[in-house]
Amino acid sequence: MSHPTQGRSTLAIHTGQTPDPITGAIVPPLSLATTFVMDEVGVSRAGYDYSRSGNPTRSALEETLAALEGGEAAFAFPSGLSAEDTVLRVLTRAGDTVLYGQDVYGGTYRLLTAVLASEGRRAVPVDVFDLDATERAIARERPTVLWVETPSNPLLQIADIEALARLAHVSGTHLVVDNTFASPALQRPLAWGADVVVHSTTKLIGGHSDMVGGAAVTAKGLTLPCGRTGPGGSRQVGAELGYLRNATGAVPGPFDAWLASRGLKTLKVRAASASASARAIADHFAGHPGVRRVYYPGRADHPGHDIALRQMDGFGTVVSLGCDSEALARLVCEHTRLFSLAVSLGAVESLIEHPATMTHAAKADSELAIPQDLVRLAVGLEDANDLIADLEQAFLTAGEIIATWEISRLEPNAIPTYGLP
Ligand SMILES: *Cc1c(COP(=O)(O)O)cnc(C)c1O
Asked: Would you say 94 and 119 are in contact if contact means Cβ atoms under 8 Å apart?
């Protein structure tokens, strides 16, 4: 049972995860069945009839997620983007405007500006880290939705959720927060006034690089914008999310839901450990000769540090490093041994990537492009000292390669050219 005073590890381990009443199995069994037997026509035994409409393993995950985020209801999806798409379709119609933080995930940007925009929804970027600019944009654009990601990706800027919720609500705008980077272990946006939280459960919640999933969690009693009624006949956002998900079939498989539930049980300890390592890496590389700037909200020199201190319960598992040059950034990415060169984050393995050409390539030629010299580190659960040593050797190797390029440019004959006549 969920109890509002219980801590998040207790909630994650016990809410929605009660032992099987028949066998006593302490882990609720994985329910793969697609259909459910009825004893009488139209009367289901436990509210389940067909697995697209409802599945016990999925329900268990949703109960845990709703408790962790302090929401009314949670809805699991087959991916983070599927959750985002469904939320945006429930909250907006053609002709509506979505005001979005300019630093949002590349896939969110593509969904808003290419897919939903082609269907008549307007997508307008705003600097959500500048409250005056956001207030003016809300007054000017009258958006139905304000879409915010905090900490943002990959620059790890911190948006003030409480202040943004206040600004949004003055105009009847719904605030959606993508809580993927923090996870409910480190941040609960609904408690600060957000209306909907979305997640890519692929990241910290799943936590083991072995499933793709998403989720949306609604605030208590949340109704549709502008007094509308949705196609499912309800004014309640939760009811319409359930309706649209069933109508379009955007449901996760039971095994992915089960893996997400399993991930949630260790989320808090994983998030705490990886955040501590991220902090150690950020502190180590501040002032490093190859690094012009460290981006980590846990550091006092970060512009969002004070807000993060108030709004978060830890500063997150991602650190970005602004390197001396694009060449250095790319070479560091290619020369780590423990950090794997891969997109994604929040897993047991540490990952490194070059956002400008990888995760954020969709923004490449726009005014929202990411600096080319940036490296993003998604810190995992290896020992922090080993991770720091790995990065140090990658910077060293990268620096040596660049030095040989420079020598060859200054003295073209200094480098032997094999195989040429
Ligand atoms: C990965 C990610 C998404 C998209 O989630 P998928 O599960 O890959 O569809 C959305 N937002 C953020 C912040 C992400 O990191």
From this structure: yes
